[in-house]
């Protein structure tokens, strides 16, 4: 009689184990799903960081030429200087640049002003895939009839660049 009692105990033990196994499967499924979601979020974050880094590289490559064009002019070729600067501007800043240069043209001609801007260094203030703000250290070398020799103005400007038709353009310039 002992054997049947042992068999009953074995069946009872197996019956109590089965619910544990059944509970383990949903836990494993939930853990697998959480791991998949975490991996997906990490992948998305990595791709977003790569796109942001690409935006920064492109904006940094554009900034020196843009700053030089926007902040330089020569009274002898003023319209050409402004047209060159305009190619780097977009949006409300392009309109502001047009208004400013119209009023500057007469003064530049009277003063025979020549201003050459050179970027000494740039740094990233903030960056997203569709907008990069750069701090630009800019030296402006200027000559005119009122000044003996050449004078250097050291300026700091925050340039906001945005992509427009595959090119990065200045949408805002703020002197600081």
What is this structure, in a nutshell?
This protein has about 180 residues and is of the alpha+beta class. The chain is about 55% helix and about 30% strand.
Fold and architecture overview:
- The chain has a single domain (36-175), classed as Nuclear Transport Factor 2, Chain: A (Roll).
- The longest helix is centred in the N-terminal third of the chain and has 69 residues, at 2-70.
- A five-stranded antiparallel sheet has the order 1-2-3-4-5.
- It is of the alpha+beta class.
- It is elongated.
- The chain has helices spanning 2-70, 78-86, 91-111, and strands at 73-74, 114-128, 131-143, 151-164, 167-175.
Task: Spell out the key features of this protein.
single chain; 176 residues; alpha+beta; Nuclear Transport Factor 2, Chain: A; five-stranded antiparallel β-sheet; 3 helices; 30% strand
Widest sheet, order of strands: 1-2-3-4-5
Estimate percent helicity.
55-70%
Total number of beta strands: 5
Query: For this structure, what is the CATH class?
Result: Alpha Beta
- Determine the structural class based on helices, strands and strand pairing: alpha+beta
| CATH fold name | Nuclear Transport Factor 2, Chain: A
Strand content: 25-35%
Helical region count? 3
Sequence-ordered SSE layout with sheet pairings:
Elements: H1 2-70, E1 73-74, H2 78-86, H3 91-111, E2 114-128, E3 131-143, E4 151-164, E5 167-175
Antiparallel strand pairs: 1-2, 2-3, 3-4, 4-5
Helix pairs in contact: 1-2, 2-3
